[in-house]
Amino acid sequence: MHRRQFLAAASVAALPRAALAVPNRDADLRAALDGLAKLDTPAARRARLKGFDPASLSPSARIDLETVRAGLAVDAELLRSLPVGRLGRSPYVIAPNAGAWREKAPDAQRIEAENAQIAADARYGVVLPAPLLERTRSGIIAAAGKATGPAAAALAGQARLLADLAPRAPKEPGTSRFPGGARYFALLLERHYGAAIAPAEAHRQMLAVAEALTARADAVLKRLGHAQGTVGARISAAFKDRRFLYSDDDAGRNRAVADMNATLAAARPHLPALFGPLPPECLNVSALRMPPQEEAEGKQGYRTIPAPGMAGAYFPDLARIRDRPSWTLPAVVHHELLPGHMIQLPIEAASEPHPLRIEYAPAFAEGWAIYAEQLMAARGAFAGDDHALLGHLHWLLFRIGRGLVDTGVHIGQETLAQTSSKLATLQGEAAYFAPMAQDIERICIEPAMRAAEALTWLGLTRLGSIAQRNGPESLRKFHRRLLADGRRRFAMIA
């Protein structure tokens, strides 16, 4: 099936006839969306879109319009609730992973603008938490030593400003620790997830899933002979079993990639039952080794998305190959390749979504890929291989653990020490690409994203289960409708 035929088969039947009547309205909408950056406020941007009728647009453009309208409405509420930080991203203007100080050639004007906003945010009670503030300040001092002229002076001023604010910095992170922070987190969660949900309810749902996954992992570990200690400790012990470790050389890395491609080949026969015909480019994918220079530099894993006439690939990070037991890789194949990202992203690319749709539905792609892992598990991909099943469960524990840290820190006022202990108990071994301390730090700086990804995965699982109960064709239709025309906010799916 050609990609356009896939999109048409999934979406035209539900489309009002008027949507095909005024094709120029798609171009008008895209021009309007392109111009929104010139307007100062979310309210003004939303007003610019007021005259567009969804029924006059193609399915993809209609999703653009409805997604951006809903996202701008949340942004307007965020500004009314707590006008601080980087709108829709973080309550903090600068952080260890953000700010002009991280640029190779910092711009003095941008630094001064950041300084003004940092001071303004402090008047709302929002100051970078103490451990993150000190790390950021140290980085700024180092950057100032390398800079020259106005940029050096502006960075020195930024370091002094952070030193002045240090006595007011909270000892622990969490949006609920500053005035209006609980409402702020709820709005961020709605923005990223794409539907309103009480953060406490989100935490409750994720906690129930974590308990169920822990029970499943416990049973698998016992079958594998790991019977003593917490689930996390036993997973860590399984990671050290030398029988499943690749050799730290070209032969080991080549074998890891070959094993991933064998898993990929085994997945292909299952796809028609889950999706029906797929665009051919979705299937034109493989796992490949990175070029030697990238491997030597320790570059993180990445993917190239297939397109008509162009193959796609996932390039795993194998620098620390002894930390990647063979049984952890099958689930990675289903997440990164088929039926995960390499089905969803090429179909989305064919629909040409506006970048603002990606901005206002950021959790969908990751939620889909986690859901795709579960699809393959339900199809028996790990049947008879408890080690591969453990690898799958470990990845799910990592995903749900991230979500629980997100809500735990930002609404439950958990400390950094508590979150670290929780993750160690839950998943034992850190995900290969996300050391626990680094992952927790990012969650502290950028609230709600990991919880939104987990909620999207859980929501898709719930809807997929309902479709499955009505038979295989119902599940295929659900997947085609879900994927056609690209991502959308969760409220537009449910």
First-last Cα distance: 27 Å
Number of strands: 3
Quaternary status of these chains? single chain
**Which strands sit side by side, in order, in the main sheet?**
1-3-2
Number of domains: 2
Secondary-structure element series: HHHHHHHHHHHHHEHEEHHHHHHHHH
- Give the integer mean of the pLDDT values: 94
Overall geometry comes to globular
Approximately how much helix is present in the residues?
55-70%
Fraction in beta strands:
under 5%
Assign the structural class, choosing from mainly alpha, mainly beta, alpha/beta, alpha+beta, or little secondary structure.
mainly alpha
Count the DSSP helices: 23
Rg over alpha carbons: 24 Å
Major β-sheet annotation: 3 strands, mixed
**Unreliable spans:** 11-21
Give an overview in words.
This protein has 494 residues and is mostly helical. It folds into 2 domains: 100-179, no CATH class; 194-492, no CATH class. It has 23 helices and 3 strands. It has helices at residues 3-11, 24-34, 42-48, 59-81, 108-123, 130-146, 149-165, 181-193, 199-223, 231-239, 250-267, 271-275, 280-283, 292-297, 329-336, 341-350, 355-360, 364-378, 386-410, 416-427, 436-445, 449-469, 472-483; strands spanning 285-287, 302-304, 312-315. It has a 3-stranded mixed beta sheet with strand order 1-3-2.
